[in-house]
């Protein structure tokens, strides 16, 4: 599968020359760069970590070369983390839509491919926080001071994408159990075939991927039908 790379030079230049007033602009730039790094990749935790590393390496390099005071650097790092969180929310949504379609067709989330996808969602928060902590640790002494409060805030409040991922995993398991109870496990062979194509359904997350899947005639596809 083709691997899309972050335009590190562009991101470095943006952070190197940024002012404290450009926080929202940088948040959007980081979100776009993170999505770019995910494009064309399977959405495994390993690949998401690699994407986050590419982005945080560029952010750290740019910030280290800037002349901003510590307080402003802290603010921009906080925006960078928020930008990554924005992008990962879209990755979680792409997983939710794809898995929801499979559950609606009677797929059993105990199947190997789907069980791993749900397990990855449950680990999403720890993965994201671990990636940010690793980025901060590898940034070196000049960046240790502004990274400190950002990490404390992240630890205390968590991430939107991690929270959404956990809720998504829980809901999918509930939907699967409801489907089994209502005898909607018919057509298992067809569902298993669909499960095999799960990776293809969620790889290459971009802006609007979830909307494109929904417009493809799948409907909501999230829960079981009530009697």
Structure write-up:
This protein is mainly α and 227 residues long. It has one domain (8-203). The protein is built from eleven helices and no strands. Helix 2 crosses helix 4 (70-104), helix 3 runs parallel beside helix 6 and helix 4 (70-104) runs parallel beside helix 8. The N and C termini lie far apart (43 Å).
C-alpha Rg (nearest Å): 19 Å
Count of the domains: 1
Q: What count of helical segments does DSSP give?
A: 11
Distance between the termini: 43 Å
**Which quaternary structure do these chains form?**
single chain
Order of helices and strands: HHHHHHHHHHH
What characteristic shape results from the CA principal axes?
elongated
Total strands: the figure is 0
Taking the sheet with the most strands, its summary is: none
The low-confidence parts are 221-227
Secondary-structure-derived class? mainly alpha
Secondary structure: helix percent? over 70%
């Amino acid at each position: 599968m083709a691997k899309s790379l972050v335009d590190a030079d562009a991101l470095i230049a943006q952070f190197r020359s940024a002012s404290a007033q450009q926080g929202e602009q940088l948040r959007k730039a980081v979100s776009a760069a993170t999505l770019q790094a995910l494009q064309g990749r399977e959405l495994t935790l390993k690949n998401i970590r690699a994407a986050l590393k590419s982005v945080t390496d560029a952010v750290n390099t740019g910030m280290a070369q800037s002349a901003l005071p510590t307080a402003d650097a802290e603010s921009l790092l906080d925006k960078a983390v928020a930008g990554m969180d924005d992008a990962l929310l879209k990755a979680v949504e792409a997983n939710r839509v794809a898995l929801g379609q499979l559950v609606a067709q009677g797929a059993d989330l105990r199947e190997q491919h789907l069980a791993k996808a749900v397990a990855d969602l449950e680990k999403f928060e720890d993965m994201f926080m671990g990636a940010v902590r690793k980025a901060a640790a590898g940034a070196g002494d000049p960046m240790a001071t502004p990274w400190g409060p950002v990490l404390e805030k992240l630890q205390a409040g968590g991430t939107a994408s991690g929270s959404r991922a956990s809720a998504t995993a829980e809901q999918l398991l509930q939907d699967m159990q409801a489907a089994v109870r209502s005898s909607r496990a018919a057509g298992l062979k067809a569902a298993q075939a669909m499960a095999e194509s799960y990776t293809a359904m969620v790889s290459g997350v971009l802006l609007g991927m979830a909307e494109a899947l929904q417009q493809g005639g799948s409907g909501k596809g999230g829960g079981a039908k009530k009697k």
